[in-house]
Structure formats: structure tokens, C-alpha cells
């Protein structure tokens, strides 16, 4: 039984069998609840401050200069493809041909959908880390695939991947591993050793790998993001997905991209061309400039989010939550059992009334609802004063215990 979303009775009878289990996403319900109760919305993960002014100006310039106002090239504008290639070289030492190994997409969301539609045969198994980002299950279903979860388990204050469980999840029907690091919603960043083991498994079992690395720049403390594509034998089997939304705080622009071998990029493009064909013309030029920002931008982003993480996690601890301190992303997952609660969905439906804050029950990202029941996710990509106010409001939960 999938629990990715809360089924919407009005729509459900019309939905085809593949999508019947996916109703309206939980974000819609929780955002509506935030609006109707005047709550602080720490549910959906979007920043409440726009990204760099010069990047916004670059988009305005492109619009005014008439760049990208008509259909841009199918693979994306050359400026952006070159910028993605240069970014992979500068950050990770990866050589990516901007003409054959980069494809610009309508956000990472379209990249995920196109990759699944292009690479998964009906009946193929797709092994993915659970809890899943909310579009994975639906995209695997749209491709006719079967998702096989490997659950990240709480261990010493973080969620960890059990490499034996991963190995056991792979069968002769497995086509593809769908990896996400830094991982939403747990904030786990897979270590170099874990990634090396994932890579060895993929090579040994001859699997394709789709790796969602949209939080590549949002890593904290001494955590390090290492692209899966950089491990031996991975270049030719890996589709790497990233996006401007999280890195530059322009989630509404929906500029994403994949990198991979020419064969993989061509395959994904075959599906992508019939989804949106192209998108976000002028924004593509702006993101090309954004990717070339100096290291100081990326360092500043990390420093700012580290402070926000610390602000919100301190408030959550004060309020009595169990806190899994994230090493990446802009989410923190909490355990509500120390508050005497056990059902995250019920808790999140009540929280706006009890404390004026909206969060997301992590159970909706699990097939195994039991495993996800006591966890609740908060986003910290918000202004410091908003996080402080949220912490103050949440403190009332501790008072009433
Ligand atoms: C936000 C997010 C996406 C979607 O990115 P867009 O570029 O906004 O489409 C994909 N994967 C994960 C894990 C995300 O958190």
C-alpha cells in the first residue's frame, strides 16, 4: 500500500490504475491548512527569500534582450549547457561534454519523470531509498515499473543506509537504482564509502543509476557531497540530476538538468521532448550566469543555511522533539515520540491549531507507513525571524506536556 499522498475521493475514480493510489499531494492539504489557520508554513520546502539579485537581473536582461522568449533549443541553450559542464569540472573534476552529455529540463521534477519514462520497462523493478521524494513513486508508476524500497533507518541521531538491505533488494528484475543524496526528507548525506559500495553494487549487477543531487550545494559541517558518477564504472550507467531551484533559491523558475553519457542523455531526451519539449527560456540564461558565481556565493549559502538549521533544531529540541540533525538539504526530520505522540499524520493535522506551525508527516514518503509513522519534517529555508517565531510557538508544546 502506498502512502505517498492522501487520496482525494472526488478525483480518484477517474484516475487510471497506475495513478489511482496518488491523490492530491499532502503539500496541498498542509499549505491550505497553513493559510486557513494563519500558521507558519514549514511544510513545503521553498525559501521565503529570493536568490541573488544579479541572477534575477540576468533573467530580466535575457527577457529584455529577447533571449529565450521563443522555444529554446531542445537540449537547452548552449550557454547553460556549457555552464553545467564547467560546474561539474570545477566542483568535481568531472568531464562532461556540453553538446552531448547535458540536457536541460523543466526542473529536476521533469528530469526524474523523463528518466523513468525513458529507462524503465513495464514490470522492471526500481530500487529507491525510502522515505522517497514525493514524485519518485508516481514517476516509477507512470513508467509501469515496480518500486522496491530500501528504508533508511534511524541510527545514532541520523538516518543511515543499510548496505546489506540494499544488496538484498536487488533482484534479476532490477533495472535501476534511484538514489538521492543529500537526502530529502532525512537530511542524510551518503558518505564516500557508502557511495563507493552503491557504485560497486551497480557495476556488479549491471544496473542503471539515477541520482538526484539537487541538494549538492546544501551540505553542512564536515559532510561532503560526492557525485555517484565520479566512482569507477559509473560514468556510463549514471544519470545525474540537479536543478537551480535549491542551489539558487529560485524554485519557481524550474530550471533543472541531467548529465550522463551521450546514450543515456539521448534516451532521456526522447521522453523529455514529449513532456515539455522545452521550458524557461530566459531563465536558462540567468542560471548559466548563476552557475558561474564565485565560490563565495556557495559558501555563503551553506553558512546561512547552517545557521538556520541550528536555529530551528535548537527550537525543536527545546520543544521536546527528538531531532535528527541534518548534514544536508534544508529539512530536519523529528521524532514525535518524546512528545508522547506516535502518529505523525494526526499530529501534523493538529499542529496548526495547537501551535500555529505547519509541518509534513514523513509517513507520506513511505510505503511502510509503520516505519515512517512517528516522524515529522520541518523546512528551515525561511527567514531567521520566521524560524525564531516558529520555535517560540513550538515551545508551547513542551509547556503543555
Ligand atoms: C525539490 C526537489 C526536486 C524538484 O526540483 P525542481 O527543480 O523544483 O523540479 C527533486 N528532488 C528532490 C529530492 C527535491 O527535494
What report would you give on this structure?
This is Pyridoxal phosphate-dependent aminotransferase. Pfam families: Aminotran_1_2 (PF00155). Helices cover 41% and strands 16% of the residues. The protein is an alpha/beta fold. The protein has a seven-stranded mixed β-sheet with strand order 2-10-9-8-7-3-4, sandwiched between helices. Strands 11-12-15-14 form a four-stranded antiparallel β-sheet. Strands 1-13 form a two-stranded parallel ribbon. α4 runs parallel beside α5, α4 (107-119) crosses α9 (262-272) and α11 runs parallel beside α14. It starts with 25 loop residues before the first helix and ends with a helix. The model has no long low-confidence stretch (mean pLDDT 94). Residues 107-109, 133, 180, 184, 212, 214, 243, 245-246, 251, 254, 256 line the site of pyridoxal-5'-phosphate (PLP). Pyridoxal-5'-phosphate binds at residues 107-109, 133, 180, 184, 212, 214, 243, 245-246, 251, 254, 256.
Amino acid at each position: 500500500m502506498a502512502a505517498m499522498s492522501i487520496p482525494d475521493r472526488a478525483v480518484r475514480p477517474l484516475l487510471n490504475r497506475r495513478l489511482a493510489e496518488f491523490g492530491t499531494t499532502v503539500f496541498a492539504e498542509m499549505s491550505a491548512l497553513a493559510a486557513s489557520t494563519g500558521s507558519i508554513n514549514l511544510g513545503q520546502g521553498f525559501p521565503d527569500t529570493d536568490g541573488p539579485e544579479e541572477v534575477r537581473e540576468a533573467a530580466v536582461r535575457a527577457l529584455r534582450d529577447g533571449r529565450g522568449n521563443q522555444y529554446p533549443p531542445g537540449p537547452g541553450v548552449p550557454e547553460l549547457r556549457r555552464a553545467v559542464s564547467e560546474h561539474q569540472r570545477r566542483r568535481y573534476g568531472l568531464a562532461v561534454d556540453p553538446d552531448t552529455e547535458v540536457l536541460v529540463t523543466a526542473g529536476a521534477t521533469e528530469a526524474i519523470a523523463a528518466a523513468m519514462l525513458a529507462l524503465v520497462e513495464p514490470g522492471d523493478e526500481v530500487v529507491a531509498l525510502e522515505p522517497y521524494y514525493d514524485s519518485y513513486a508516481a514517476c516509477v508508476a507512470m513508467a509501469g515499473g515496480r518500486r522496491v524500497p530500501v528504508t533508511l533507518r534511524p541510527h545514532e541521531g541520523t538516518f543511515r543506509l543499510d548496505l546489506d538491505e540494499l544488496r538484498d533488494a536487488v533482484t534479476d528484475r532490477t533495472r535501476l537504482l534511484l538514489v538521492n543524496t543529500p537526502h530529502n526528507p532525512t537530511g542524510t548525506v551518503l558518505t564516500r564509502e557508502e557511495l563507493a559500495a552503491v557504485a560497486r553494487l551497480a557495476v556488479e549487477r549491471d544496473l542503471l543509476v539515477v541520482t538526484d543531487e539537487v541538494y549538492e550545494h546544501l551540505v553542512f559541517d564536515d559532510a561532503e557531497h560526492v557525485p555517484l558518477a565520479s566512482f569507477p564504472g559509473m560514468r556510463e550507467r549514471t544519470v545525474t540530476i540537479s536543478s537551480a531551484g535549491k542551489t539558487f533559491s529560485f524554485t519557481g523558475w524550474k530550471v533543472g538538468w541531467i548529465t550522463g553519457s551521450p546514450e543515456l542523455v539521448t534516451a532521456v531526451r526522447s521522453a523529455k521532448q514529449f513532456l515539455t519539449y522545452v521550458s524557461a527560456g530566459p531563465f536558462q540564461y540567468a542560471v548559466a550566469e548563476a552557475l558561474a558565481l564565485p565560490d563565495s556565493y556557495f559558501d555563503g549559502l551553506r553558512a546561512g543555511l547552517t545557521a538556520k538549521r541550528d536555529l530551528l533544531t535548537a527550537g525543536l529540541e527545546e520543544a521536546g522533539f527528538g531531532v535528527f540533525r541534518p548534514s544536508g538539504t534544508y529539512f530536519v526530520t523529528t521524532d514525535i515520540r518524546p512528545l508522547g505522540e506516535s502518529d505523525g499524520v494526526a499530529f501534523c493535522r493538529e499542529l496548526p491549531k495547537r501551535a500555529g506551525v505547519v509541518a509534513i508527516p514523513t509517513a507520506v514518503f513511505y510505503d511502510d507507513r509503520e516505519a515512517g509513522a512517528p516522524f515529522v519534517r520541518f523546512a528551515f529555508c525561511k527567514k531567521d525571524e520566521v524560524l525564531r517565531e516558529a520555535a517560540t510557538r513550538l515551545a508551547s508544546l513542551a509547556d503543555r506536556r
